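Renewal narrative, Specific Aim 1. Our central claim is that a sequence can be written position by position from structural information alone. The example that follows is taken directly from our test logs and has not been curated for this report. It begins with the structure tokens describing the chain, in the order in which they were read.
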């Protein structure tokens, strides 16, 4: 899809988050009208004002991905307002403890609901529109944790999103609908507070979204430095078992999560 065409409409789910808001700003910069979907947050209204100041239309729709009625309302409201849906970016996500044993049942369900079932339901809701238009782009924000299982139920949800992305791409290929998975490593966001400014900002993911819209491919891994480690992990899974199965590594992975629980 050629970005920058006047009148294009993008739904960005998780628009109030670090990656979501960076993606919204990147789309605004291309003159794309935006629909901002997330649990209500004043940040959404501020983003909408930024869009209007830049000369594009913006619509805020408070959306709980765990509620199918909210998803259906989001799609219906977008169609009533714009009469089309060209782009869907699934950028919402939540994390949990890397240890499944230290994760509550409610947290297990919430991660799957938001990270996997949410995108599945959104895709299911927008695909009839895109198939009828015979054009569209779907971009799912996964994670490198969806290639190497080291982060508990979060990894499981991102593995699932990778499989969902592949199957949807094949299902809609004949309808001229592009489907891309973007797999970031650690980026600056409230999900990674302990890493501070030592890691790239969410703009690196937003740039990958624009690249996926302009030059669709199966997946983008960002930053590129993660590509070689993931290649090694795929070729030598037993090595990953040994490294990440070590008690000290497991303790280090879970240390920050335990500290965060104490704060909360």
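The sequence written for that structure reads:
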């Amino acid at each position: 899809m050629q970005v920058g065409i006047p009148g294009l409409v993008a739904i960005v789910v998780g628009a109030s988050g670090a990656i979501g808001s960076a993606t919204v700003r990147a789309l605004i910069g291309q003159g794309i009208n935006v629909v901002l979907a997330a649990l209500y947050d004043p940040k959404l209204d501020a983003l909408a004002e930024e869009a209007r100041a830049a000369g594009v239309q913006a619509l805020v729709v408070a959306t709980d991905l765990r509620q199918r009625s909210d998803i259906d309302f989001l799609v219906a409201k977008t169609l009533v307002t714009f009469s089309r849906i060209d782009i869907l970016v699934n950028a919402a996500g939540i994390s949990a403890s890397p240890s499944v044993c230290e994760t509550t049942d409610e947290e297990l369900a919430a991660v799957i609901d938001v990270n996997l079932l949410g995108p599945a339901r959104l895709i299911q809701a927008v695909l009839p529109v895109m198939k009828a238009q015979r054009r569209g782009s779907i971009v799912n924000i996964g994670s490198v944790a969806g290639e190497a299982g080291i982060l508990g139920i979060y990894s499981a949800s991102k593995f699932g999103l990778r499989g969902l992305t592949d199957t949807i791409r094949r299902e809609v290929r004949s309808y001229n609908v592009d489907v891309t998975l973007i797999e970031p490593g650690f980026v600056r966001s409230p999900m990674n507070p302990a890493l501070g400014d030592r890691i790239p900002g969410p703009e690196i993911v937003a740039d990958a979204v624009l690249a996926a819209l302009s030059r669709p491919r199966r997946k983008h891994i960002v930053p590129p430095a993660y590509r070689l480690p993931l290649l090694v992990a795929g070729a030598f899974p037993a090595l990953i078992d040994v490294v990440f199965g070590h008690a000290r590594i497991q303790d280090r992975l879970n240390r920050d999560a335990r500290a965060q629980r104490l704060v909360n």
